[in-house]
Amino acid sequence: MKVIYPDKINSISASDEDSDYPVSNLYSKHTTDVWKSTGQYATLICQVNSGSNAFALFNTNAEIIGIQFLTVNGSTTPEIIWASGNDWFSEIQWGQIYIPSEANNGTMEASNIIWEDDARVFSNAQWDQDHETSIRANYLVNPLTVWINYGLQSIPIDLTLYLEAPVGEVVQVGAIRAGYAYSFNDIRPGVTESRTSTSIINDLSYGYIYINNAIQNIKNFECKLDITRNSDFYTLLHNIIVQAKGEPLAWYLAESLSTEYWVVLGYIPSGGFSGSHLFPLDSEVSLSIVEAI
User: Fold this and answer.
1) Mean pLDDT across the stretch 106-120?
2) How far apart (Å, rounded) are the C-alpha atoms in residues 58 and 64?
3) pLDDT tens-place string over residues 35-87
4) For the residues 202-226, what does the mean pLDDT come to?
5) String of b and e for 147-163 (b: at least 16 CB within 10 Å)?
């Protein structure tokens, strides 16, 4: 399990915006307060302060998302800064010091990149030729959540997202969070997941039923996890939950599972966190998370 705290985004700018859905909506605490572009293609630039190692994107209709990291000084020759290994997604590996130049059926030429040829997570992934340090991937889920891990950055960075919506639609995004992602054990099997509808249903006196349908179905998670007490338990309690003071946070509840179902922007309701110190060094945590739509 990972949780981003604090959010280190300093500013967000967009290539364009619908005046009814401005980019300022992305500072909202609710994913349904969306930013919308005026066309099928759009770009978002997030200035992220030092100390970040992950970002999450919520409630977007983008089918293709290109991701680019730049040093905040605006260098025209950006350095590639993702960490070596497979933090990008579990099916992809890459080298740290090279800038990719061209793609060949999902495998980078020469020694520019180490690319594991498995598309179970990134279907149709390919490098964008116009932006050498961005990666493009086609997703089928709509609305989409995205979680990306990268190497811990000791300097501020510009995180640029190149977004493409389906034909006939304009790009929209509900929320972005970027910052330091604390890492804990994944939630245990047996999690309870439910939906709370915001529809209004009333029985009327003359026998009819009044229904006011609403599109919101709020995710609710009830889960448990086992963590080390002296480090992880008190880090989660004091450094994150107490400090956040009810602020919605970006959660990745189970890294071994698909992001669109287990990444949520959510808050912990009153009484939603408790711990049982059942073992000499470890604790069992009960955690409730409610989606912030």
Assistant:
1) 31
2) 14
3) 999 999 999 999 999 999 888 999 988 877 777 767 665 543 334 433 333 33
4) 81
5) bbbbeebeebbbbbbbb
- 12 vs 9, 176, 182, 261, CA distance in Å? 7, 9, 23, 26
Cβ(42)–Cβ(35) under 8 Å?
no
Cis peptide bond prior to 6, omega within 30° of 0? yes
pLDDT of residue 158: 85
Label residue 94 by pLDDT band (50, 70, 90): very low
CA distance 15 to 23: 10
Q: Is 154 left (phi over 0), alpha (psi -120 to 50) or beta?
A: alpha
DSSP codes joined into one string, 94-124: E-SS-----EETTEESTTS-------SSSTT
Q: Are strands 157-164 and 9-14 parallel, antiparallel or unpaired?
A: unpaired
- Domains assigned to the chain: 2-181 (2.60.120.260), 192-291 (no CATH)
pLDDT(280) > 60: yes
Q: What is the largest CA-CA distance in the chain?
A: 76
Residues 6+ apart with CB under 8 A from 192: 220, 221, 222, 223
Give CA–CA dist 160/60, Å, rounded.
15
Say if strands 249-252 and 2-7 run parallel, antiparallel, or are unpaired. Answer: antiparallel
- Report the phi/psi class of residue 53: left, alpha or beta, with left for phi > 0 and alpha for psi in -120 to 50: alpha
pLDDT grade, residue 196 (50/70/90)? confident
Instruction: With a cut of 80, say whether residue 163 has pLDDT above it.
Output: yes
Nearest to 285 by CA among 3, 2, 272: 272
